[in-house]
Give the backbone structure.
Amino acid sequence: MKISDLTNSLGLEVICGQQGLTNEIRGCYVSDLLSDVMGTAREGDIWITLQTHQNIIAVASLKDLAGIILVKGLVPETETVEKSNSSGIPVLSTSLDTFTIAGKMYELLKKE
Amino acid sequence: MQFRHKIAGGDFAKAGNAAISVKKVLSQLNINHTIAKKIVIALYEGEVNVVAHAWSGIVDVEIDENQIRILITDKGPGIEDIEQAMKEGYSTASPQVREMGFGAGLGLSNMRKNSDFMNITSIPGEGTVVELINNFRPDAG
């Protein structure tokens, strides 16, 4: 499953990092602690978080994550958008809360 | 191969830049992906520690055919009790730093888990030196 497939099936809005929409999703990780993501997330995971600052792009890029989903309609900061576009880590947004979007993501990935 | 990267305390915009450049170099050198991933995690955490706690720091990276050695030297408050600092969940980070999702008390343990050798020396009020070594071949050293 690619990021672009998610946008349709989960109704996500693509905010930035469009060139990464073809990234393949292998799994998902949910956390708002950056060191937890650094230590635990796996390559190809899509990361669900409420953090919107630019360091999320560095973490996603270092860990080769597929992309980031921001919850509750949160929008990334300007610097985050710039880094997302330059590094090709797509940032998507959902109006849903973490529990709900993670549940939907789980159902989708289970079918794979 | 040797190179140096400077870190400014409090500059979260650049946190991770040393790790990003090392990741690129290791990829160019065709270092095993699993080994490279560990090094990058350890260095990133070390960088964030300098940004979050110290005033300034320097990352010195030495790479030869067998290993990578990273020395992170900072001027800062130092660590009073290294054993306590190593415990998962223990952190002295400010509320602002914690709000960003840092300061969970996982950094040093991530560094230990992702390095083959780690040594910390610190003088309270002066600074901290962290040495990290990762071998490129699992059977070496």
Summary: Chain B is about 35% helix and 30% strand. Chain B has a mean pLDDT of 94. Chain B has one domain: 2-135. The radius of gyration of chain B is 14 Å.
